[in-house]
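Each letter names a residue; the fold follows as tokens. Both lines appear below:
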Amino acid sequence: MLCLMPASSSRSSSPIDTRTEKTSIARRKPDNGNETLSALMLPNYYFALPVKPRLAISERLNLAAKLTTIIPLRLGYYIARLVFFALRNRFNARFYLTCAGVRMAFMSLSARQLQHVSMTAKQTYEAWLQQKAKTDGDGDDADQERLVHDIQPLEPVDASILWVGNRRKANKFVLFFHGGGFISPPLAGHFEWCWNAYVQSGVEQGVEVAVAFLQYTLSPGARFPTQLRQAAAALGALLDAGVQPADIVIGGDSAGGNLTMQLLGHLLHPHEDARRIDLAEPLAAAFLVSPWLGCNTTSRSFRENENNDMLSKAIMEKLCTEYFGGAEGASHAAAGGNAWAAPLDGDQNWLQGVDNLVPNIYVTVGKREVLADHGVGLVQALRRLSALGNIRLEESEGEAHDFILLEGQANKAGDATKRMKDWFKSVVVAG
């Protein structure tokens, strides 16, 4: 059971203990050791070699072969198809170009290969901070304090919190779980999104907000329930530091939305492998962007959007197989055998009581994404099972999967970011 420490009675100061790794950002450039693949995929993505995991010789040869054959062919095909779709429908062609790059990467590379050519979460965090300090922090002492390199280890579970914002002064907190199918590390766009939608929204409302960005272990290095164990440890760390549940918003995108529901499911039905947490009061709110909530790929949105999204039936089946440790594990989840990580595939009464944990939930999906029915299905289930009236669902025309992330990658606070900001400001004001 969790022992809650009393939070500060004053909302002007933060209860967070800052005795962790915290330094100013050195002016150093990220190691871009694979510019070829970076150029092939999409703008603003960071890549580096060497990074963990180290590939065997056979994996390296396979990757080299893909770089000269299947990757350029697939990329050209996906670009032609998705950009034509966007232009024909007057959607954002640049974002659908990015969708083509993501789809190519997930279809062509193994999880280990994808991680091998990608920067780690820590590297991307440091590179983003370095760039952000140059563009947004100059001349603004408060923003400089919000852009301090601050990593909090969660040693018992081999994870870390990468802080965005000034947690020494914050009185509202966002516990953020990044997407990437549990196989891809976070992108710079994730940190940009957190900065624009949460930290800066707080500034605009006169509230200091800090984002606890969880660096969790990726598959195949670790599978369920490792990430749930790490998410519970992160929430526990905030509570142990004296943060009140009512000052915490949790959420994430895609697989991060999945992890959000895993954590809520754990609070309702404690998993034996994760730290048990008994909240003294509800959390402030939760958000799920393009959430991935099951292994079933037969819904209408899969059929209608299969050819026009960054994700596909084949990709989602691959990710499920990877995350659940093989075809048998994925089949077990799809049959309702894992309500924490696949809550829509089994008895949805499992979700009964979510309204006692969080009074305000925001779910957003793109109408053109294969996972659209996951977000819609979750909202329908929650509305049926609870008296919670403050459930907001947004289905965005013209958007495929996770467009708020693509806005972050483009360093643009676009429509998806503005909608998130509007919702988050209402949460901050209500709190």
Summary: Residues 224 and 324 are 6 Å apart (CA to CA). Confidence is low (pLDDT under 50) at residues 1-13, 18-51. The beta strands are 21-23, 149-154, 159-164, 172-177, 209-215, 248-253, 285-289, 361-366, 391-396. The domain at 120-430 is CATH 3.40.50.1820 (Rossmann fold).
